[in-house]
């Protein structure tokens, strides 16, 4: 995880806005964000180009959702092995086409280069600003901490792909393959959420990103973390997997904070947007994310990533 | 060169605007472009990170210059080997900082990922539109074909790096290392140039790009191609290198067409922008770029790239 340190040390001084999921383009209604997917780091070598196309767009659109915006279009950077063939392109372009229609976005340009190496997809996506830009830095003492959908499915889906667990319905793999950016939800909360981030690095790590930029801590309750039926079944059989649920990435749900006075509004939005929203904790005056179990005892995670833990 | 075919076949149907050096963002004054640099394809493994930073920005700013715009800022995508260290970052960021100041641009955000592989820099650059967007598709029968600066230096610089030729003054290497995007010139010609492209793939190949999109041909004269003192010295010793001058890439000069009625204006602009502009030929009703030698005989080049030649 040294890249976080390098970015903070070398690139942040050049760009004060680094830290949010997307940036604004001055004197326009545009948002812009960039996410790179690399073979062997973010996806397997035999990964379907169709899924890859969708994933590379959706991870970016999730960043746009996290600041309250609507996807508009994208620039596509492709670095491809020399032996990529028609079949690869047909599958990849089928994925692009479907998502262009689904999100009503368009390809604006790009660069494609062949090399003697792996597949790398570098998408720069554009969005249109929502009512209000949601920063990561606005979480306030006592705010509710909420998440959309269910957490941990994508990380378990990856385990299923690795043959470590069984995914009888295929839903966990499906969540890993094709995330659903919470665009409608991001727009709906944009006028009152105090902070927001999309969960790409893992629940705890992304919660920690908000804490750092907002100068706060968070107390979360592991028994409140929303699990899908498939995930619950697995965690009940092997409780250790709760670690993975808390720290695994790729869910692309929204983690946001809001003053408790908006509690009813959050329920309404949940119904209107047809997305479950779960209150999983609150903002504290600490500096860290603390997760407590059902007996209110702090959980020490084995896989901490770069996050400092109690 | 199969990527050109793939782009044409699979990506162009998704984006009619593909073909120009930069795209416009609707309802804004922004231009956007994307250029990826890959270790082993676009630069050597021991290449100075300082040069790399500048080159990755300048190749993009050259695209913005080619449509008549002014650089505004950029998103930085970095894919870096796991062993990149502080020295690498310090050199790279020094290059970024200098060019942020030189071009008055800012870093707007990005994504940095470590992997077990090569250095890949994926920049998406933004510009502000000039008076008029210069398309590649506007070249008209009888128009003058002009180039800025001198041609072939970067390709010869690369040969010098490879130890194949001597570059006693270091100027050829310097041109390969740090191109000078013709921003002021691009702006100055934007209200009358009928087409423009920046020479990144090579003079002939880029001329051919204009021909394809404008449905025209070009007749160029090899003895009119402007050479630097250093390049002329080398070509005089070994005339075969004229092939390289005509087809080598990385010069990032502007190749543009304009009606001959603007001939005097072009001279004025050359003086005002302090950039040599040379008329090297004219637009024909053919489909190909034909280069004629001083005896007016068509030259057959050994290294044609993907360009079809007489």
TrEMBL record, chains A, B:
<feature type="binding site">
    <location>
        <position position="63"/>
    </location>
    <ligand>
        <name>Mg(2+) 4</name>
    </ligand>
</feature>
<dbReference type="GO" id="GO:0000287">
    <property type="term" value="F:magnesium ion binding"/>
</dbReference>
<feature type="binding site">
    <location>
        <position position="198"/>
    </location>
    <ligand>
        <name>Mg(2+) 3</name>
    </ligand>
</feature>
<feature type="binding site">
    <location>
        <position position="111"/>
    </location>
    <ligand>
        <name>Mg(2+) 1</name>
    </ligand>
</feature>
<feature type="binding site">
    <location>
        <position position="33"/>
    </location>
    <ligand>
        <name>Mg(2+) 4</name>
    </ligand>
</feature>
<feature type="binding site">
    <location>
        <position position="136"/>
    </location>
    <ligand>
        <name>ATP</name>
    </ligand>
</feature>
<keyword id="KW-0547">Nucleotide-binding</keyword>
<keyword id="KW-0460">Magnesium</keyword>
<comment type="similarity">
    <text>Belongs to the thiamine-monophosphate kinase family.</text>
</comment>
<feature type="binding site">
    <location>
        <position position="201"/>
    </location>
    <ligand>
        <name>Mg(2+) 5</name>
    </ligand>
</feature>
<dbReference type="Pfam" id="PF00586">
    <property type="entry name" value="AIRS"/>
</dbReference>
<comment type="pathway">
    <text>Cofactor biosynthesis; thiamine diphosphate biosynthesis; thiamine diphosphate from thiamine phosphate: step 1/1.</text>
</comment>
<dbReference type="GO" id="GO:0009030">
    <property type="term" value="F:thiamine-phosphate kinase activity"/>
</dbReference>
<dbReference type="InterPro" id="IPR036921">
    <property type="entry name" value="PurM-like_N_sf"/>
</dbReference>
<feature type="binding site">
    <location>
        <position position="200"/>
    </location>
    <ligand>
        <name>ATP</name>
    </ligand>
</feature>
<dbReference type="InterPro" id="IPR036676">
    <property type="entry name" value="PurM-like_C_sf"/>
</dbReference>
<dbReference type="GO" id="GO:0009229">
    <property type="term" value="P:thiamine diphosphate biosynthetic process"/>
</dbReference>
<keyword id="KW-0067">ATP-binding</keyword>
<feature type="binding site">
    <location>
        <position position="63"/>
    </location>
    <ligand>
        <name>Mg(2+) 3</name>
    </ligand>
</feature>
<keyword id="KW-0418">Kinase</keyword>
<feature type="binding site">
    <location>
        <position position="21"/>
    </location>
    <ligand>
        <name>Mg(2+) 3</name>
    </ligand>
</feature>
<dbReference type="InterPro" id="IPR006283">
    <property type="entry name" value="ThiL-like"/>
</dbReference>
<feature type="binding site">
    <location>
        <position position="21"/>
    </location>
    <ligand>
        <name>Mg(2+) 4</name>
    </ligand>
</feature>
<feature type="domain" description="PurM-like C-terminal">
    <location>
        <begin position="142"/>
        <end position="293"/>
    </location>
</feature>
<keyword id="KW-0479">Metal-binding</keyword>
<feature type="binding site">
    <location>
        <position position="63"/>
    </location>
    <ligand>
        <name>Mg(2+) 2</name>
    </ligand>
</feature>
<feature type="binding site">
    <location>
        <position position="35"/>
    </location>
    <ligand>
        <name>Mg(2+) 1</name>
    </ligand>
</feature>
<keyword id="KW-0784">Thiamine biosynthesis</keyword>
<dbReference type="InterPro" id="IPR016188">
    <property type="entry name" value="PurM-like_N"/>
</dbReference>
<comment type="function">
    <text>Catalyzes the ATP-dependent phosphorylation of thiamine-monophosphate (TMP) to form thiamine-pyrophosphate (TPP), the active form of vitamin B1.</text>
</comment>
<dbReference type="GO" id="GO:0005524">
    <property type="term" value="F:ATP binding"/>
</dbReference>
<dbReference type="GO" id="GO:0009228">
    <property type="term" value="P:thiamine biosynthetic process"/>
</dbReference>
<dbReference type="Pfam" id="PF02769">
    <property type="entry name" value="AIRS_C"/>
</dbReference>
<feature type="binding site">
    <location>
        <position position="306"/>
    </location>
    <ligand>
        <name>substrate</name>
    </ligand>
</feature>
<feature type="binding site">
    <location>
        <position position="250"/>
    </location>
    <ligand>
        <name>substrate</name>
    </ligand>
</feature>
<dbReference type="InterPro" id="IPR010918">
    <property type="entry name" value="PurM-like_C_dom"/>
</dbReference>
<feature type="domain" description="PurM-like N-terminal">
    <location>
        <begin position="19"/>
        <end position="128"/>
    </location>
</feature>
<feature type="binding site">
    <location>
        <position position="35"/>
    </location>
    <ligand>
        <name>Mg(2+) 2</name>
    </ligand>
</feature>
<feature type="binding site">
    <location>
        <position position="42"/>
    </location>
    <ligand>
        <name>substrate</name>
    </ligand>
</feature>
<feature type="binding site">
    <location>
        <begin position="110"/>
        <end position="111"/>
    </location>
    <ligand>
        <name>ATP</name>
    </ligand>
</feature>
<protein>
    <recommendedName>
        <fullName>Thiamine-monophosphate kinase</fullName>
        <ecNumber>2.7.4.16</ecNumber>
    </recommendedName>
</protein>
<keyword id="KW-0808">Transferase</keyword>
